[in-house]
Design brief:
The structure holds 2 protein chains of 2 kinds. Chain A is mainly alpha-helical. Chain A has a two-stranded antiparallel sheet. In chain A, a hairpin with a 5-residue loop joins strand 1 and strand 2. In chain A, helix 1 packs antiparallel against helix 5, helix 8 packs antiparallel against helix 10 and helix 18 runs antiparallel to helix 19. Chain B contains 20 helices and 2 strands. Chain B has a two-stranded antiparallel sheet with strand order 1-2. The chains are: A mainly alpha, B mainly alpha.
Amino acid sequence: MADYLLSMMTFFPLLGILILLFLPRDNGGLLKGFTLAVSLVTFAISLPLAFDNVFTTSGGMHYREFSEWINIGNFFQMNYNIGVDGISLWLVMLTTFITPITVLSTWNAVDKNIKGFMAMLLLLETGMLGAFISLDLFLFYIFWELMLIPMYFLIGIWGGKNRIYAAVKFFIYTAVGSLLMLVAIIFVYYFAQQSGALTNGFGIQELYKLDLPYNAQFWLFLAFGFSFAIKVPMFPLHTWLPDAHTEAPTAGSVILAAVLLKMGTYGYVRFAMPMFPDALPTFIPFLAFLSVVGIIYGSLVAMMQDDIKKLVAYSSVAHLGFVMLGVFALNLQGLAGGMIQMINHGISTGALFLIVGFLYERRHTRLITEFGGVATKMPIFATMFMIVTFSSIGLPGTNGFVGEFLALMGAFQSSLRWYAVFATSGVILAAVYMLWVYQRVMFGKVTNPENEKLKDLSVREIVIMLPLLLFIFWIGVAPNTFFSKMNPAMELMLERMGADKVAVVEMHQPAAAGHASGHATDHK
Amino acid sequence: MENLVQEAIQNVNLQAIMPSLVLCVFGMAILMVSVFSKRGSTTHVAWLSIAALVVTGFVTLTGWNNPQAGFAGSVLFDNFATFFSMICIIAAGLTILMSDDYLKREGFPVSEYYPLILFTTAGAMWMASGTDLMTIFLGLEVLSVSLYVLAGFFRNQTRSNEAGLKYFFLGAFSTGFLLYGVALLYGVTGTTKVEGIAAYVSANPAAAMNTMFIAGGALLLIGFLFKVAAAPFHMWTPDVYQGAPTPITAFMSAGPKAAAFAALMRVTIIGLDGLQSELTTLFWILAVLTMTVGNFIALSQKDLKRMLAYSSISHAGYALVGIVAWNQIGLSAIMFYMLVYTFMNMGAFAVLVLIGKQGEDNLTLDGVAGLGYKKPILGIVLSIFLFSLMGLPPTAGFTAKFYIFAGAIEAGYIWLAVLGVLNSAVSLYYYLRVMVQMYFKDPEEDFAWVTINTPVAISIAISVVGVLYLGIFPNSLMNLAKLAGF
């Protein structure tokens, strides 16, 4: 079984869709229950990965599966080539973990065409998992594009009132980026073929070793980077995000925030940066600058929103800025911070969207001014919202602190010192907009009579939130559970990114970094 | 000339024309059957025609890896011809499957319709297997004349009349150009054989720069480019595609277009090889122009048939990229692309055939509002075809586009590939608009008139399977396309 674990995990949701199609259309409970079961089984299949200690010792790919797929002789060759390492491990787990939660969150929220909705959710899960485990660029591209279709329908059919605009904008932004990446993928392939370095189709492990001339790396990084930057999204390519998030149904927003945005950052770490290391020094100052602009701009715009969901959407732009800044530091602290911040953002922003969803399902509005004094009516909700807010701000003891602290520290110790200094202001701004919205929504007197009748969270809603809260504290208090399995893979990856070329002055960094991250955790 | 005729007679090789021969004999027999059939009863003629195509398909397949030359080198039925002939046979079969109920709905159940499709297919096969410009011309004429009739088949509908007439006038002009080109080339090189022209040019390199030779080549190309609807010779396409009976529109966009590409490829890559550097530049411009014109005008179309007509222009542009590449990958990619395009485009038209009302005035963007809810299966399959036309994985449209752009990049035309994918990005918008209407708008109609009958369902099923199979497991057909290159 372990031999095919990744395939089973990836395609189990697809199998679920096939059965789903034959279930009666009108029985909403059955459809939702079945989808929940499928997503829980998928989670169960993926669970052995999280407990496998092989990741703590080896940074290479594990659970490899390989079979020949397309082979047109000397024309081109693609393989079904998958595997997982410390970098993709937690993202895979995040995906299988968050999907059942989103299914549960739809229980009362979706009543139109439930079958279609559930099929789209499962298709999305297959696409996301496939993209994280692909080791063949061509295969990656297929899964990458496959994610687009269900998300487009999720926003367009079950979204808010501007859903069509948001769905089309989301689709076209993402597709334009990926089409350019396609040209770059083909180019890399033929370059590798002509230089005789190619033995294994579009396998990235061979492509890592490719010694491309700087000039080619420059353009290729631009193409890959552009595509991933749209998905992250980095300023100024972020404009699709607030629209998509605001219009998407809660489940769509949660998946979009928790997993889909990670595709962009993951793409940088897995593909763009290690494949084109020579072009990195040219682009890093520029990309780091955009990350910092994203952090500050996202925070400032979030502050000014009167719609809670839009506020959370803009806060994503800021949070992803921290991730990118950490990754671009090209040292172990920075990368570790960035990677763990990806998971953190998935958990806390996912939770925030669920919280917005709870409010919206009760009041059918998301305007901050409509609320006030909700804490007195919904004490459990208030507690949970408070914890998630702290996590989003990055309060010590929660997961957000670990990620942001390491990312900023990594950046500070690298050539990006001044960027880190400016980025730190984002932490303060985050406290401002999150606490302010919490205060306006939760505290004070109930001014709006509509809020008098608010019911506190139901058992189902508490069940949805508890696992997320668990991980907020777990990562906050004992992040080494996660770091220990990421470290070997990250060190390997940093080597590939040619970290030595960028940070020559910090030759001893990796060793010190391991110590520092351990140190940082000891104190919590 | 007399020697030529004698040589040809001594070189008779019926094997080389067997598939088209079988098809023509069947066509004439079916024509007789329809003469003696009761007026208005066409179903048995349709099934007979399908049987004829199946038989022809098997006969054609015997030509695989068994190249047959004949008639003094004016016909060569090789893998290349087999591949393209099969595309045309599939296209014709799908057309016939979606036609029968359509003809009855439009009030024009005339059985001559089916033999005409068979003759068109036979003409297409001559174009694909012709190695002499005269053979190719003959095929082109047989194909065109049948299509003129088919395009204007609904003689009581103004739109259909307009389509037939327009196609006939412009088509006659383009054939004239082509023939003039053949004459000029003959004047310079003293032969009409494709190989002969190439041999003459390689023996006398100066001839390639001869004004008469260039003029002849250009006129010849215009004739073919008109048939593949490449800009700037695309003007006839929207009106003809919109006015012709929908199955015929589907057919024209797949079968005859593939045949025209076959002839274009053989004539340019083999015959005009001496002009390679000039021609690649020319085709570079034509490819970009064609896809850009097609995509940008499609953006503003409200009528679905017209939109698909412009989309078909843009797809011809993508296929031309394969000729620019001028390498093995590019050539095989065109073949694969034409096969995939046959499935995805004919599938989309088959759905339109089903949802159209009599007169087809409802085949507009607004007309499909809410289709995805009222007819879920039709909605899903049309979405699959549209995603494939966009070139999104895991559909065949993606693998085909990948193949084409791989050829261009391998040959070093990176900017062409970039312009190609940017064009694909533009095309997303108008394909998405159809899906927006189908799924994101509330139904205005109940689509109660849509009845799914078996033959159309079969043709849609074949297309869906083709699009998904070639999208996920393209290996086998891609390899066949590789072997079919010359």
